[in-house]
Amino acid sequence: MRSWLFKLLALLMVFGLVAAACGNDDDDGVTTGPDEPAPAEPSDDGDDAPAPADDGDDEPAAEPADDGEEAPADEVMMDGCEATVPGTKVNYAVFSPNANMDPTGSSGALVGGTQIVNVWDVLMAFDPAAGVSNGQAAESLTPNDDFTEWTLKIRSGITYGNGDAFIAQDVVDSMLRFFDSRGDGMNNRAAGSVGLIDFDNTEVPDDSTVIFRLHRGWSTFHTLLGDEPGMIVNPRIIAQLLDEEAANATEETSAARLVRNRMAVTPDLVNAASFGPYEVAEVEPNVRTVLRARDNYWGGPVCIEEIEFTFPGSSVANWEAFQAGDFNAAFLRDPRVFADAREAGAVLSSEDQNIGGLFLFNQGVRGAEVIGKDIRIRRAIHHAINRDIINERAFEGKLKTTNAIAAEGTLLWSPELQECADQAPSYDPDAAAALVEEVKADTGWDGSMLLVHADTDPGPEIAQAVEGMLEAAGFDIEVDLGPVTTVLIPRVIIQADYEMAGWGFNADGATWVASLNDNLLSTSGSNRMAFAHPDMDAALGELYGAANVDDQRAAIAAVQCVWSEQLPAMVYSVTEEGLALAPNIKGVQRAGATIFLFGNAYIEN
Amino acid sequence: MLRVIGLKLVRLVPVLFLVSLATFFLVDLIPGDPAANMLGTDATIEDLEAVRKSLGLDKPITDRYVDWLSGALSGDLGLSLRSPNEPVTDLIQRSVGPTLRLSAMALGMSFTIAIFLGVWSAQAAGTRVDRLVSGTMFGFISVPTFLAGLLFIFFFVFRESIPRWLWVIGMGLIVLRLLYLAISRLVEDRAHFSGWFGYAIATLVVAGLMMWVFVQWPDFPRTASHRYDDNWREQIRSLFLPALALALSEIAVFTRLLRADMLSTLQEQFVLSARAKGMPTWRILFRDALRPSSFSLITVAGITLGRLIGGTVIIETIFGLDGLGKLIVGTGVIPKNYTIVQGGVLVLAVGYVMLNAIIDISYQYLDPRIRRGRV
Fold first, then answer.
1. pLDDT digits (tens, 9 = 90+) for A580-599
2. Which residues does chain A have within 8 Å of residue B54's beta carbon, measured at their own beta carbons?
3. Nearest Cβ partner of B320 from A19, A317, A488?
4. SS3 of A205-229
5. What is the pLDDT of residue B246?
6. Which residues of A touch B180 (CB under 8 A)?
7. Chain B: nearest CA to A144, how far in angstroms?
8. What average pLDDT is seen over chain B?
9. Which residues in B69-86 are b (16+ Cβ under 10 Å) and which e?
10. How many angstroms separate the CA atoms of A528 and A370, rounded?
11. So what's the pLDDT on residue B286?
12. Which residues pair with A151 in a beta bridge?
């Protein structure tokens, strides 16, 4: 009896193990959303050739919207719905949670940009593939010949959540608020760009027109109106809140900050002051945001009833949670994750951010005597570092490496630019070692150098690979690894105590001008390297005035030529960023590299 | 009871003062800058200085501590240094719920499984079952919590057929064992109805449970986010894996503790007397022997709950749950957001002392000798 029973148990165990090994093969694959098979359709990603710009590049980059009709001219909308569909929901895994729904209190872009744009809407929506902006809450935006004056016409009939009419003066007041928030708000990049508007001479001739006058010609000014400054906050509500908070303001905490803090935790205020496709239903700053479709959206019915933004913890966690069906939209930002997502056939809407992987060289910030001032050292580093080794050791060979500030495949790349990029020193360890020896002999420098790098995955592997290559060339590298906010920012920005630092400019079609000027212009307060060269300043000036995509390509190529000659920093890769979407979500509009509009989106079936 | 709690709270005052003092100065030693955390990489040095001043970070550390302490004494734990500068009490209130639920679930799982295994193991001391349970428990203790979390994600979320079939095999073995006992009793003495019928019923119940769980096997989410807060079933589903990961080592500790205490209790005279009187084994184990064997278990469980409330940061991070651990470490310690660290530590310390007071009080109910001694 006993032996019979043991035999039976053994047989059952074998059967169970075989069944477990064979069971449910579907789980071994990857699905792109709940209950949906992996789609076979091609992805919309950076590997594809960029959408060619119109041949008629003489037209200004900002394109007027079709007309002043209330319904948007988008075929997707026609296919979407006639009213909000109850029970439809997008669970969106964010790159990082949003701190504040107020555009001046949010970092914007990939840290809250999508959450806020769907509540406030935006004046112009940037099309990254074409490099142009289309009217959203604005009807048209027309520049003069030298791009110093831009005439904005806003759509008529738009009302805020509290019933106030949206008028042209609101645009100026809202942007002035952005301008005033510099140094006190969260969005200093956008606040700095607003500073190019000459508010004293900007006019509002009637309730639907603003004539912006700029301190200098800026051909891509339209991108600013597609960014956080283009999200209009009802200034009458802000004025009322400022009055209320005036009594609570102290020397340390301005009334403006108190208003921002109130907006962060009070959905009703945000909903009253906004006119976007969604309202805030629930908000926990820095944790999650729940948006619900606005009943009376000026652009017609909003199909998807609810969007919930939460933060699983990392790009890898986002992708895993997306595969598991927890989310039907997930923001991704890691080349290894993108490779997995492509392999799984996920529907992707992504873009390569240029100058995403970069090493800054301290060239004497605040008068410091550092070895990076010597161009031979910057040249030696270029010779010593092999981008492919970084790729293999840190990114499993899945990183898109490049030596150009505009990588091949992105909108502003050109053969001329690549020719200039190729003139920069390439991998040649012998040449690197010779240069290091030469500098040591000339200056008495002992080869020591401090490399600062973020410890976020795969930062340690990048730093280790670079350390090895540089030491092989005769450098003596000390590595300081740590979180961005506790090591990188204090070392690079506050103390300027570094010689080489892992960084990224992340320049896309909408942010090229601001990004390069902030980081490379000799007079910029955000120039972390103390790099200063008149040729670069001149080339950056040309970029401001480039009239169309062809001119922008030529201007960027000129910047690249100076870069390759002066070597202010070393580019090694682009950073791909974007959204993985369940295949049944349609009509999501990319309004920038990292901002997605859901006003016209719908869920199929 | 109130007197005991009151005394505990009075003793807590100097402890809290020392803890807050030490925490404050230790946090100050960590490199970093809350202003950098607020402004990010786009900031200029002027922006950072302005924000630092507005947050009061330009004041000497002693002034900041005194400011914080005077606020705390009046019930104000201050504002978070992270935008949008919410009150620390609001942040703690918001994040303590998920952590409490997670910890309570982990503790509940640990208790349920450990009581069953500990009692069974003690009753079957020295047998193959005891050795199997002991070996498994040593295995559980050896698995770090983070690894358990990752393994559970891999198996329960992405390879769910494996645990599902392992469940069938494990429960199947129990069913077969019960069936074997039922049949053998039936063969031995068909007339003794109660001898085999109980095992037959148990076989059916366990087999039914096995099939029901197999069929109803839930899709476990990869993340345990707040979005499940509105629905308790969804909460249980989303917290199951992180709670199980936390419970794994606790199950092992509790089982070993209970087994040891139970073994000595089973040698007591009153147990022998109960056996001699012919009391059913289950009654002796669960009604007579378990209560006096559970002192160590309850003491350790109280300490464990206190530890879990503040120490679940790794599991919270892995499963994307915004709980108290993640708040104190991720939002507090790393960016030097000292108001959150101070507030969090204060709440944890009070919670810890209260829990231990409750455990002290519970002894009176568990052991009549203590109760009568006090009276």
1. 999 999 999 988 768 899 99
2. 184, 252-254, 257
3. A317
4. EECCEEEEEECCCCCCHHHHCCCHH
5. 92
6. 1, 5
7. 31
8. 84
9. eebbeeeebbbbbbbbbb
10. 14
11. 87
12. A142, A211
Q: What is the pTM of this model?
A: 0.82
Given pLDDT bands bounded at 50, 70 and 90, which one contains residue B42?
low
pLDDT confidence of residue A7: 53
What residue in A sits closest to B95 (Cα-Cα)?
A: A287
Return the residue matching tokens 């003491």: B299
Give the pLDDT confidence of A254-304 residue by residue, as tens digits: 898 899 999 999 999 999 999 999 999 999 988 899 999 999 999 989 999
* DSSP alpha helix (H) spans, B86-223: 88-123, 128-142, 145-152, 161-188, 193-215
Burial call A134-173: b when 16+ CB within 10 Å, e when fewer: bbbbbbbbebeeebbbbebbbbeebebbeebebbbebbbb
**How far apart are the C-alpha atoms of A293 and A305, rounded to whole Å?**
5
From chain A, the residues in CB contact with B41 under 8 A are 484, 488-489, 493, 503
d(CA B353, CA B330): 24
- Nearest to B38, CA basis, from B88, B72, B86, B95: B86
Beta carbons of A99 and B162 less than 8 Å apart:
no
Whether residues B173 and A493 touch (CB distance < 8 A) is answered with no
pLDDT < 70 regions, chain A: 1-79, 183-189, 593
Judged by CB atoms closer than 8 Å, whether chains meet at A105 and B84 is answered as yes
Token couple for B305: 């709950």
How many other C-beta atoms lie within 10 A of the C-beta of residue B90?
15
SS3 B78: coil
Chain A partners of B318 at a C-beta cutoff of 8 Å? 313
Residue B1: the pLDDT is 63
Do A448 and A478 contact (CB within 8 A), yes or no? yes
Q: Per-residue b/e over B109-119, b at no fewer than 16 CB within 10 Å?
A: bbbebbbebbb
Q: CB-based burial of residue B375 (10 Å sphere; 0-12 exposed, 13-18 middle, 19+ buried)?
A: exposed
| Residue A182: both structure tokens together | 């510099």
Q: Domains, chain A, ranges and CATH?
A: 77-328+582-603 (3.40.190.10), 355-575 (3.10.105.10)
Please report the residues numbered 526 through 555 in chain A whose beta carbons come closer than 8 angstroms to any beta carbon of chain B. Answer: 526
**What is the pLDDT, as a whole number, of residue A77?**
37
pLDDT tens-digit series, residues A398-423: 999 999 999 998 888 999 999 999 99
Contact B48 A20 (CB under 8 A): no
